[in-house]
Structures are given as C-alpha cells and as structure tokens.
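Contributing new records

If you add data, match the layout below exactly. Sequence lines come first and carry their own label; structure lines follow with theirs. Keep one chain per record. Anything else will be rejected by the validation script.
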Amino acid sequence: MLASLLNQRPEETAPRLLGATLSFDGVKVRLTEVEAYAADDPGSHAFRGETNRNRVMFGPPGRLYVYFTYGMHHCANLVCHPDGEPGGILLRAGEIVEGIEIARERRGPVRDVDLARGPARLASSLGIDLAMNGTRDFELHLAPAETWAAIEVATGPRVGLRLAPERPWRFWVSGDPTVSPYRPAKAR
C-alpha cells in the first residue's frame, strides 16, 4: 500500500500522509501538516533539474530528502513521485506521540504543542539532519482507514513561496493545534 502510494504525484499522496506516524531515532510524530512539490512545480527544488543538493528527489520514492535552509535549519521531505518525475512531500508539522522527553531535549524549553510545529522544528525533534539525506532508516505507518476517514483535511497555499504560491498543495488536519501558521513569502 505505502509503496504504491509513494509512486503517485506528490499532490495526490500528500493528504493521505495526514495522521500517519513517522518514527526516527527514538521519537514518533503523528503528521498534521505537509506540502507537495512536483517536477512541474516552480516552487520545487527539482524544478530546474538534478543537482548534487536535490539528487535524492530524483531517486527511488520512500527516502528522505533533507536540506539545510537559512544557514541554520534542516527540513525533511518524503520522496514521492511516479517513474521518471522527481518530487517530494515536505513534512511540515506533527504531534509528538512517543519519545517526548527526547524531543524536549533536542528542542529545548518550548511548549509541547510547538515541539514539531513547523518543518525545521519537526526535523529537529526527530533528530534529522543532512546525514539522513537519502535514508530509509525510519518507519512510516499510514493512519488506519477508519482513522483517516475521520480526518478533516484542509488545503491552501504553501508557506513562504515566491514561485507558484497559489498552488493549494499545503494540506493539514483542520483545527489541529500543531499545524503551523500560514505565512506568505516576504517581499524582496
């Protein structure tokens, strides 16, 4: 089921990841917010072609594409695409459901609801950094059908994008307190 789901376009798969759990290095997160990035998407790191930095997005689905941003944060994407097309799903936010003490040690003195609220915080709570780029060394379990059916999925523009900001490829669990606030791109 998971392999076939990850072989689809990211914007089709992304909402199905809501409610899924991702476990890595002693911490488990229930995903509450994700963003899709496809090959034909100017907002995607893969839009202009393969580079050393984005090579993982062109490889087999089911790996983590980790990148360093703003000179201080790591963000993680789950590689997801049909054959021949790069793509990924940015893991934007979640609720820590196991290993909260470990996440607290990694994140410092923040409210529990904020431990994995935002893509850099989520990666930090899970202990994900550039060394994990390309790894499959994590567990991802989709929410059971009955649980997923009960999730109210909201969709809207992606956060902070200058290119293709109008695409409603940000998906989140409506009303969940761990979802990050929407922020448009800052004007240059």
